[in-house]
Design brief:
2 domains, binds fe (ii) ion, disordered N terminus, alpha/beta, Rossmann fold, Dehydroquinate synthase-like, alpha domain
């Protein structure tokens, strides 16, 4: 009998989804940072908020949200559940929160002598919470702690080792920002400052439909496409690994079913919960595999172009996948398979294109915007955003080296 353990059969490499892909995906060196987070998904979990705060020893809590969430039923419910633990509130957090808001939150936290933070909201609220915790523990201004990417190939990550106050996050969108040690804060000049600190990862995350039942379905679909983009970028990231790839494929599969189901029947909690669970998995993907060129572009489209992070993600993803397809054939073939395509016996390049077609199909089925112009985006900003992209850390983790600014501008232009 032939021993196939050491001999690669010639046909394996040409068959996506075969054992060859599995071997490539598993036999690699990697580091996995496990999260010290308790995740509670389900109805009625929010009602146990007081007990959860107690378990973290939080007695004086700073409560963070956006103005709209503060005025929602979920906002009042959380305020009630906090009871006597409520010490201070910052309810003015906008999308793409900036340095000024972080400074306001730090001042409030110091005046109220808080011992923990509860954040109810989307990515901007989560990131603001993490940024406040960094400044409270490390001192200085938030900008002092930002990581710097020196193109083309050097990434300096600040060591933020001091212990942080505990954070509990209740997401209202599918941003998955609450899962990761990463965060982004808008600098005064419009750049996105990025940070990385495993000590700011929430100790508890509560995924309860009561918190996101009032979130417009359109916000859940665009942030859900951001979550889907985490899966794609994580799958072909330079620092992907077997754990992140497993989560990425399962989450991509789940989101590709959950998003159309939710948009067809937006009031069904079960579908919303499936979107939020898929998004949660996508957060674990990027917590380890990080994000690439697509997110680098979306950061500029958000902080300089004024688009929501989810909106930018929903539009740009297939365009950046096309740029990366030539170096990410095996991973995109696995993605196509996870989304239901039959890729057996097909050339890798063909399966990669099938994955991109399936993403375009998903965009259309859930009705997200597919052109930047449809959101009133100013075309004159494309050049500046392309230049910003080159200094974003995503360009470092992308599987294919980022092209010159003119070529990035052409990718954005194609989405205009
Ligand atoms: Fe994202």
């Amino acid at each position: 009998m032939e021993d196939g353990r050491h001999a690669k059969r010639p046909s394996e490499a040409a068959v996506p989804g075969s054992g060859a892909d599995a071997l490539t995906a598993f036999a690699m060196p990697f580091v996995w940072q496990g999260a010290a987070t308790r995740v509670l998904q389900g109805e009625d979990q929010l009602r146990l908020l007081g007990d959860q705060c107690q378990s973290l020893g939080m007695k004086r809590i700073l409560f963070l949200s956006s103005p709209s969430v503060a005025a929602s039923k979920a906002g009042s419910a959380v305020r009630d559940f906090l009871g006597e633990r409520f010490a201070a509130r910052l309810a003015s957090i906008p999308p793409h929160s900036g340095e000024e808001i972080v400074a306001n939150g730090v001042q409030l936290a110091r005046e109220a002598a808080i011992d923990g933070v509860v954040a109810l909201g989307g990515g901007s609220v989560s990131d603001t919470a993490k940024a406040i915790l960094i400044v409270l523990a490390e001192g200085g201004d938030i900008a002092d702690h930002a990581n710097i990417f020196f193109p083309p190939d050097r990434y300096d990550q600040k060591i933020l080792a001091k212990p942080k106050l505990p954070l509990l996050v209740i997401p209202t969108t599918a941003s998955a920002a609450e899962v990761t040690p990463g965060l982004g804060i808008r600098a005064r000049d419009g750049h996105k400052l990025v940070f990385w600190d495993v000590n700011v990862v929430p100790r508890i995350i509560i995924l309860d439909p009561e918190a996101y039942r009032e979130t417009p379905a359109g916000v859940l679909t665009s942030t859900g496409m951001n979550a889907f983009a985490h899966c794609v970028e994580g799958l072909y990231s330079r620092v992907r690994n077997p754990v992140s790839s497993a989560l990425a494929l399962h989450a991509a599969r789940g989101l590709s079913h959950a998003l159309p189901a939710m948009i067809a029947e937006p009031a069904v909690d079960r579908y919303r919960m499936a979107v939020m669970a898929g998004a949660h998995l996508s957060g674990h993907v990027i917590a380890n595999a990080r994000v690439g060129l697509h997110h680098a572009i979306c950061h500029g489209l958000g902080s300089h172009g004024g688009l929501g992070h989810g909106e930018a993600n929903a539009i740009m993803l297939p365009h950046v996948m096309r740029y990366n397809a030539s170096v990410a054939g095996p991973e995109l073939a696995l993605l196509a398979e996870s989304m239901g395509a039959d890729v057996r016996g097909k050339p890798e390049a063909q399966s990669a294109l099938a994955a991109i077609d399936l993403v375009v199909d998903l965009q259309n089925r859930i009705g997200v915007a597919t052109r930047l112009r449809d959101l009133g985006f100013d075309r004159n900003k494309i050049g500046a955003i392309a230049r910003m992209t080159l200094s974003d850390r995503g360009a470092y983790f992308n599987p294919r080296p980022a092209p010159p600014a003119d070529d990035i501008a052409a990718i954005i232009e194609a989405a205009w």
